[in-house]
Amino acid sequence: MFATFYKYTPLGTCKAVFTRINEEYSERESLLEEVIWLMEEEERKKDADKEKTASLEKASLDIRKRALETLTPTKDCDAEEAIRPKKSKSFNNILSYLQEKKEVEMEIRKEEMEMKKQQLQFEREKFELEKNERRQRMDIERQEKMMIFEVFRKLVDKN
Does the CA dihedral 71-72-74-80 come out positive or negative? Predict the structure, then answer.
């Protein structure tokens, strides 16, 4: 009797459908994991670049500071030329302006990085919600198919 059921009902089809669903679920799961890994890798690269630029900026400031400290008047200059309060003030003004400009640019970069982090966090949360929703849909479909399978089995048992 069971052999006739298997021969005339879509039980083999049911198995194929369940196998296909499991394969699709596994494939989607692996793709999602790969996307998460790529997002984390991108964030790590950005953090490394940020640290590198910060260290380069610090080194350049140190070099500038040492260069300014070692500036001495040359032998060819007169004593009057060695003392130039106007130029040193204007030089200090320019230097302070450049430092302020750099600080403002760094603040802007920090804000942009923070916004990007927030956006990535939002996308991760959205991704997790969609993932959970897909799992729930697949569970519901699996339950429906199991119910159909049970109905077929009951019909076969009656015959």
Answer: positive
3-state secondary structure 22-91: HHHHHHHHHHHHHHHHHHHHHHHHHHHHHHHHHHHHHHHHHHHHHHHHHCCCCCCCCHHHHCCHHHHHHH
Mean pLDDT value across the chain: 81
Distance CA(100)–CA(65), nearest Å, equals 16
- Give the pLDDT confidence of 67-113 residue by residue, as tens digits: 777 775 555 555 555 555 555 678 888 888 999 999 999 999 999 99
Q: What are phi and psi of 83, to 5 degrees?
A: -105, 110
Whole-number Cα distances in Å, 110 to 34, 96, 119: 28, 21, 14
Q: CB-based contacts of 68: which residues, under 8 Å, 6+ apart?
A: 95
Token readout for 156 is 């076969």
Which of these, 32, 19, 33, 30, lies nearest to 142 by C-alpha position? 19
Of 97, 91, 103, 102, residue with least CA distance to 67: 91
To the question of pTM greater than 0.85 for the whole model, the response is no
